[in-house]
Amino acid sequence: MILTVTLNTALDLTYRVDRLVPHSSHRVTTVTERPGGKGLNVARVLTALGHEVAVTGFVGGATGSAVREGLTGVRDALFPVLGSTRRTVAVVDSASGDTTQLNEPGPLISPAEWSAFLASYEALLKSASAVALCGSLPPGVPVGAYAHLIRGARAAGVPALLDTSGEPLRRGIAARPDIVKPNADELAELTGSWEPLPAARAARRRGAHAVVASLGPEGLLAATPEGTWQATPPSRVAGNPTGAGDSAVAALLSGLVTGDPWPRRLASAVALSAATVLAPVAGEFDASAYETFVDTVAVVERADAA
Q1: pLDDT for res 57
Q2: How far apart (Å, rounded) are the C-alpha atoms in residues 129 and 153?
C-alpha cells in the first residue's frame, strides 16, 4: 500500500469560461467539483495506475465531508478536525487554455489534533510500502511537520517522497527524504542557485537522497546516487496544468515501489504530466496520450553528473 499525506486537503472547484476578462462578469460553461490537495491528486493517479493507496491528512466541516464523499478507489484514513477544510478554485480560460488559481487557507489545527494525527500516521506506516508528503501546511501545524513525518517514515523503514516548498521544504530536506520534487522556483529558493543542475546537487548535499526538479516545458532533471538524467517531453502541450506535478509524483512513487530504473521512472513522470495537462481536471490524465508519450520522452544522461 502507498500512503499519501495531504495535511491541507481541499475541495477543488474547476470553472471553465469562454474567455477570462479582468474586472468583468463571466458565464461559467462547466463546473467540476472533487476532492483535492496535492496528495489526493497523487492518490487518484496512483489508483488509476493500479496501486493500492491510502490517503490521510486533515478534514473538517461541511467541505471536509464533501471531500470524503468524493473519494473513490482509495482507503480513507483522513483525520477529522474541528476547523473547515478549504476550497480551491481554478478558472480555465477556454480561449487561451490558461488557468487562474485561487486557494483558500486551511483550517486551524490545534496541538491536540496534531498530536493525535501523528499517532494515526505512525500506525498507517506499518502497512505502507512508500509515503508521499505533499503540499502546504494548514495554520497551527508546526513548520517542521514534514521533517517529523520523514523521520517517522525512516524509523519505520518506509521510503518517503517530499513535495512542498519554502521553510517546510528547507526543514524537511534535512530529515533526509528519499526523493524531493521541487519545481525550478522552489529549488532556487532552497539553494540560492538558478542553475538547475548545481541547485539539484546542492539540494542533495542538504540531505535529499534524490532530487527530481520540474523544469516546466523542459521536463524533469533528476540528480540521484545512480546518475543524473534530464527527461524532456516530445512537444509542448496546451491545456490545464493543474495537477501535472502531482501526476509526476505519482509516477515517481510507482517506479519506486516497482523498482523501475530511473530513466523509466522519469519517462513515465514526464508522460503522465503531459497527459494530465490534456485532462479537464487535476488528478486525471488522458490514458491514450500517456501511452503515446511514454515511449517518446527523451531521457538523456548528463555527463556532468556529480
Answers
A1: 98
A2: 10
Q: Can you read off the three cell numbers belonging to residue 114?
A: 496534531
**Size of the chain in residues:** 306
Q: Could you give the C-alpha distances from 104 to 1, 58, 87, 138, in angstroms and in order?
A: 31, 15, 6, 10
Which residue in 21, 282, 8, 241 sits closest to 136, CA to CA?
A: 8
Query: Alpha-carbon distance 3 to 54, whole Å?
Result: 5
C-alpha cell at 289: 496520450
**Is 295 exposed, middle or buried (CB count within 10 Å of its CB: 0-12, 13-18, 19+)?**
exposed
Q: Which residues are catalytic?
A: 246
Gap between the Cα atoms of 258 and 139, Å rounded: 36
Distance CA(92)–CA(18), nearest Å, equals 8
Q: Are strands 75-76 and 53-59 parallel, antiparallel or unpaired?
A: parallel
CB atoms within 10 A of CB 25: 5
- What does the pLDDT look like over 33-71, one tens digit per residue? 999 999 999 999 999 999 999 999 999 999 999 999 999
